[in-house]
Amino acid sequence: MPLSSRHLLGLQGVPKEDIFLILDTATTFREVLDRPIKKVPTLQGKTVVNLFYENSTRTRISFELAEKRLSADSVNFSLSTSSVSKGETLKDTIRNIEAMKVDMVVVRHSVPGSPLFLTKVCDSNIINAGDGAHEHPTQGLLDMYSIREKLGKLEGIKVCIVGDIAHSRVAMSNIFGLKAVGAEVSVCGPSTMIPRNIEELGVKVLYDIDEAIRENDVLNVLRIQLERKAREYFPSIREYSNYFGITEDRLEKIGKEDILILHPGPINRGVELSSGVADGLKQIILKQVTNGVAVRMAVLYLLGTMN
Fold first, then answer.
1. Mean pLDDT of 150-179
2. Which of 143, 274, 291 is nearest to 220 (CA)?
3. Percent of the chain with pLDDT over 90
4. Domain that holds residue 25
5. N or C: which end of the chain has fewer CB within 10 A?
6. What is the mean pLDDT of residues 162-168?
7. What residues pair up with 218 in beta bridges, in sequence order?
8. How far apart are the two ends of the chain, measured CA to CA in Å?
9. Are residues 150 and 278 in the same domain?
């Protein structure tokens, strides 16, 4: 069965059947990544534009590799060398790009709703690679894939998202996606970083990291976005680390030996995670990166073969 939409704008409202279809398809492509020749001709003849208005390392390279592994032609848009510096609007940019006969657009933009806007002004398949603090659906999907790969299921798994929930598109996509597939979701962080009324999304709110560790099977630890004035929401980095940082001593004291730790990267070592935890046996951070390529291959394939 095909996906219910020809775009991937977020995970809010996406049926669980779509999510499981993407995850199951990603399993097939994950096997491709372990082959000596990591390439299939699935999207040969398709052209994908990576339209990134914000800096990115993991997401952008992951999408580029996914496109190349599927034999698609990919074109990278660079904000600093584009006509945007001359005042060109997003609408005019995408219309000019689409006039060159592209099939799919992967977009990252600082303004929430930008991917949705593109669906109204062009005919290409649109994939949201992060729009402001709204959503980052492929990150949510790869996190779910990584949890299922490690624990064998998603339904009934207790997942706590830790950190700056209020400004995190990763948190939102994880909440929507995990709730759709039957996981139990909680959030933990300083009260200044927890959105009002987030309980209405069906999540539990915790303010004690020790309690979060004791109650959950998985911690998805978010990066503190220092470049986005995150320091304004807590007294100091040292205090944040003392109250919410995940360290070997804290895990050992609580005695939660089977906790699984995720992080979307890049890590602020000594802030969200100590180096011992970041490099330890409980985390699957680099697995997430590898799985991200497979998940993005799955999304590109499922959308690219709908037309």
1. 97
2. 143
3. 85
4. 16-134+290-304
5. N
6. 93
7. 159, 260
8. 14
9. yes
The model carries a pTM of 0.95
pLDDT at 80: 61
The residue-averaged pLDDT of 83-104 equals 88
104 and 148 inside one domain: no
pLDDT at 150 exceeding the cut of 90: yes
Q: What separation in angstroms does the CA of 240 have from each of 122, 198, 234, 268, 304?
A: 44, 21, 7, 12, 43
Q: Locate all alpha helices (DSSP H) within the chain, ordered by sequence.
A: 16-32, 58-69, 90-98, 114-121, 137-151, 169-180, 209-215, 237-244, 248-254, 275-278, 285-304
d(CA 302, CA 22): 8
Contact 129, 107 (CB under 8 A): yes
Do 224 and 267 fall within a single domain? yes
Contact 188, 212 (CB under 8 A): yes
Please answer whether residues 169 and 140 qualify as being in contact, where contact means their C-beta atoms are separated by less than 8 angstroms. Answer: no
For the chain, give the mean pLDDT. 93
For 33, which DSSP code? T
pLDDT tier at 82, thresholds 50, 70, 90: low
Q: What is the CA radius of gyration of the chain?
A: 19
Strands (E), 153-283: 158-162, 184-188, 204-206, 218-221, 260-262
- Tokens 């005042």 belong to residue: 87
Which of 305, 263, 292, 285 has its CA nearest to residue 66? Answer: 292
The 8-class DSSP code of residue 134 comes to T
| Cα 40 from Cα 29, distance rounded (Å) | 9
Continuous H helices in 204-284: 209-215, 237-244, 248-254, 275-278
Is residue 68 included in any domain, yes or no?
A: yes
265 and 300 housed in the same domain: no
pLDDT of residue 234: 78
Question: Residue 100 corresponds to which amino acid?
Answer: M
Region 192-199 average pLDDT: 94
DSSP structure class, residue 222:
P
Q: Write the CATH number for 31.
A: 3.40.50.1370
Q: What is the pLDDT of residue 306?
A: 85
